[in-house]
Specification:
The complex is a heterodimer of chains A (about 100) and B (about 475).
Chain A: H1 3-23, H2 27-51, H3 56-88
Helix pairs in contact in A: 1-2, 2-3
Chain B: H1 9-23, H2 34-52, E1 59-62, E2 66-69, H3 70-91, H4 107-126, H5 130-148, H6 155-186, H7 191-197, H8 203-219, H9 228-235, H10 238-261, H11 268-291, H12 296-314, H13 319-350, H14 361-364, H15 366-380, H16 386-399, H17 404-429, H18 444-462, H19 468-471
Antiparallel strand pairs in B: 1-2
Helix pairs in contact in B: 1-2, 1-4, 2-3, 3-4, 3-10, 3-13, 4-5, 4-10, 5-6, 5-10, 6-8, 6-9, 9-12, 10-12, 10-13, 11-12, 11-17, 12-13, 12-16, 12-17, 13-15, 13-16, 13-18, 15-17, 15-18, 16-17, 16-18
Classes of the chains: A mainly alpha (about 100), B mainly alpha (about 475).
């Protein structure tokens, strides 16, 4: 296991997240894709902290903070998604067309 | 108990304020005015205290990790000013709704949320390491999602919030990925250490910069990532749109300034073409988009996209000059933008928020029409008003390092911008009045704020050297 392996894993995970975000038409699916992207960044932090960084505590701490912040963000996102669901009775993003040029 | 320096007090007060405002609801009746009064006194007090902090030059550090620089103090003033005006603008939306939407409720929590977002902006400008920086940006953004969806009974509001949070979280992910590479590149999260390491760049740094600019591009509504802005600006409640267009934009600009003149300072020359390209395309797209709008808030969204492009140009200059130009322009932009939103708000309380509702405004209510004209001329940058000097300094900062191409392009674009700002004025002054429009009424607060803002916009333009603070950094 080298640094390169970890970075490639993180990059792939990030790519999968972006791909999912573009192709998923379901709100919760999109949120999960987002979570993948954020966790890819976490893997980056941890692997840099483990392999190269001079200040390795910072990287490890950073990822813990990221997890907490992501939880806040997802709490708000899910609240908004629930209010969307109450309105439209489905979670398909294709319905988001009331606002347009 | 350890010693608390003076310059940290406004920050602490701002941190306590939302808890006070929301907490006070536990002890008072539902329709009590006490939370609203606490919020007003608190915010104005914080703004006044900020003005007492002397601009000493250099940075002051609190527990080694909270940097109160001169730029930071002025930026705090912009953010708190934006919060005050946002709170004043929002008050009437809790009595009766605007733009065909139902009235909002829970004013205490609303004000608290705005204060939290403001504190997030302050955290961004006080940061000395990537972690604080990231947390600040998140504290500034997450309340905005909630504010956009504040009106639960409004369908467009929840749609706008969904779009905003999807786009915003993607931006966060990109930014975080950029931060992780920056950490990997430098091996530390301290800004000064990253700056030292950036003197010998390697590919990892360039990838990090690319990701960071993607991330902040979303927040600052730069060219390929601006698409969410018009939808969100239109769907959100009007006061939230105003807060979004000033606080959120100021935070994003502060983020870029901190980054470009902090950790990335050694490679600033190399990323200048990227900044120039983003700025040019953004202001062009913003201006083109604004040309064909018929609804006022969508129009303001494109206008603010273009303004973001103009502000980016200043980032091409040297540190002191760019920071001064950006701060001055942010003051001007905040005042002009809020003035426009106050006028639109009054119109929206009685009519639909569209260009047609402005018709014959000069005959029905001259003072409103004058205020609107002042706001639009200032945003367009017509000489006697504040906007002109703001734009002048932005362009001056860009030109001072020899980026004449982008400055010429921006000035030409300003002509395009003048066209659509003039269209608003034409609707208000030249078009015949429509008999079917409901008459407009103003509350006393609205009238006072509009007079105050109009005078401020004119005064800052006429006496640009009135404030030594703002111009302390200028070299000519």
């Amino acid at each position: 296991m080298t640094l390169m392996n970890c970075l490639i894993l993180a990059f792939l995970l990030f790519g999968i997240g972006v791909w999912g975000l573009i192709h998923r038409r379901h709100l919760v699916g999109m949120l999960i894709s987002m979570e993948l992207m954020l966790n890819a960044a976490n893997i980056n932090f941890i692997s840099f902290a483990y392999f190269t960084a001079s200040d390795s505590t910072a990287g490890a701490l950073f990822s813990i903070f990221v997890i907490a912040v992501t939880a806040c963000e997802m709490a708000i996102a899910l609240a908004i998604v629930v209010s969307m669901y109450r309105r439209y009775k489905s979670l398909d993003v294709e319905q988001l067309r009331d606002l347009h040029d | 108990m350890s010693y608390i320096p003076n310059y940290i007090i406004p920050d602490l007060l701002l941190l306590i304020l939302p808890f006070l405002v929301i907490g006070s609801r536990l002890f008072v009746k539902d329709n009590s005015k006490i939370p609203w009064r606490i919020a007003n006194i608190g915010l104005v007090l914080i703004f006044a205290l900020l003005n007492f902090i002397p601009l000493a030059g250099g940075s002051r550090f609190f527990i080694n990790n909270w940097n109160v620089s001169d730029f930071g103090i002025l930026m705090r003033e912009v953010l708190v000013l934006s919060a005050i005006l946002g709170v004043w603008l929002s008050k009437d939306y809790f009595n009766h709704g605007g733009d065909g939407k139902p009235a909002m409720n829970q004013i205490a929590e609303f004000i608290g949320t705005i204060a939290f977002a403001t504190f997030g902006g302050i955290t961004v400008i006080s940061a000395c390491d990537l972690l604080t920086f990231f947390l600040g940006l998140e504290i500034a953004t997450i309340p905005m999602y909630a504010l956009t969806a504040w009106n639960k009974r409004d369908q467009l509001g929840s749609e706008a919030a969904t779009k905003y949070i999807l786009m915003g979280s993607v931006a966060t992910a990109f930014e975080l990925f950029g931060f992780s590479y920056l950490y990997g590149f430098a091996g530390t999260i301290r800004f000064d250490a990253i700056q030292t390491a950036a003197s010998n760049p390697n590919p990892l740094l360039w990838i990090a910069i690319l990701f960071l600019f993607c991330g902040i591009g979303f927040k600052l509504t730069l060219f390929p990532f601006y698409t969410w802005a018009p939808d969100v600006y239109e769907g959100a409640p009007t006061p939230v749109t105003a807060v979004l267009s000033v606080t959120s934009k100021a935070t994003a600009i502060a983020f870029l300034v901190m980054l470009v003149y902090g950790p990335l300072a050694p490679v600033r020359e190399q990323i200048a073409p990227l900044i120039a390209l983003l700025a040019g395309v953004t202001l062009f797209v913003g201006n083109l988009g604004a040309l064909k709008q018929s609804r006022l808030r969508r129009f303001m969204a494109y206008s603010s996209i273009a303004q973001a492009g103009y502000i980016m140009i200043a980032l091409l200059g040297d540190s002191a000059m760019a920071k001064t130009a950006i701060i001055y322009y942010l003051f001007v932009y905040a005042l002009s933008n809020y003035l426009a939103f106050f006028v639109f708000g009054i119109i929206g309380h009685h009519r639909e928020e569209s260009f047609d509702s402005l018709r014959g405004l000069s005959k029905q209510n001259v003072s409103l029409a004058v205020a609107l004209a002042v706001a639009m001329f200032s945003l367009a940058g017509i000489p006697p008003l504040a906007g002109f000097f703001g734009k002048f300094h932005l362009f001056f900062s860009g030109a001072s390092t020899g980026h004449y191409g982008i400055v010429v392009f921006a000035v030409l674009n300003n002509v395009l911008a003048l066209y659509y700002y003039l269209q608003v004025i034409k609707s208000a002054w030249a078009d015949e009045a429509d008999e079917h429009l409901t008459p407009l009424r103003m509350t006393r607060r609205q009238r006072w704020v509009i007079v105050l803002l109009t005078v401020a916009v004119i005064l800052i333009g006429i006496l640009p050297f009135l404030s030594n603070n703002v111009f302390a950094g200028f070299t000519f």
